[in-house]
Write a structure and sequence with these properties.
This protein is mainly α. It has four helices and no strands. Helices cover about 60% and strands about 0% of the residues. Helix 1 packs antiparallel against helix 4 and helix 3 packs antiparallel against helix 4.
């Protein structure tokens, strides 16, 4: 799933508002650069790469729009990390195939130079976004006390009758006597 459902972003863990204000401009600039490189991929007739890059950029726009909800930030960070790996492999492939002429500076066709620049910029932008997602994740999880979840005890059900709630440990692997 690339586009998040708006309802799913509600009720999540958010980052501190001071960090959200700082990250909004950096995320926005990098997402604009990501959208610009996806437009250049359309220009070079790499339609599939342009579509996927555009969808992932839209996913990042949803992350900013929902104020860096932790769930969507982590999903976007993992997605953009692996997409950065793909871009890095494409860069290495291009470097190996055209090694003596790789940066097409002397090529009379300027499309080659722009294509090389796109291949160099894409993994840098992807991994910078990954680092920002990691910073957001660490700020939301380090230092905050994660509350323990209590087992759901329904009144009147067989499992809630006769079990001392102070010693009840769900899913601990201990056998219980029935009856």
């Amino acid at each position: 799933m690339v586009l998040p459902i708006p309802v799913a972003a509600m009720g999540g863990v958010s980052i501190p508002s001071s960090l959200a204000r700082k990250m909004t401009w950096a995320f926005s600039i990098l997402l604009a650069l990501e959208l610009a490189t996806s437009g250049l991929r359309f220009y070079f007739l790499d339609l599939w790469g342009g579509v996927i890059m555009t969808l992932i950029s839209i996913f990042g726009i949803f992350v900013v729009r929902y104020n860096f909800d932790l769930q969507w930030t982590v999903m976007f960070g993992v997605t953009i990390f692996f997409y950065g790996l793909i871009h890095f492999v494409m860069l290495l492939e291009r470097m190996v195939a055209l090694w003596p002429l790789f940066p097409g500076i002397n090529n009379p066709d300027h499309k080659v130079l722009v294509k090389d620049i796109v291949f160099i910029v894409a993994p840098v932008v992807d991994w910078t976004l990954t680092v920002l997602c990691w910073i957001i994740f660490r700020s939301a999880t380090v230092g905050s006390v994660m509350e323990e979840r209590q087992p759901l005890m329904r009144s009147g059900t067989r499992s809630s009758v006769g079990i001392n709630s102070s010693t009840f440990v769900p899913f601990s692997g201990e056998g219980r006597k029935l009856g």
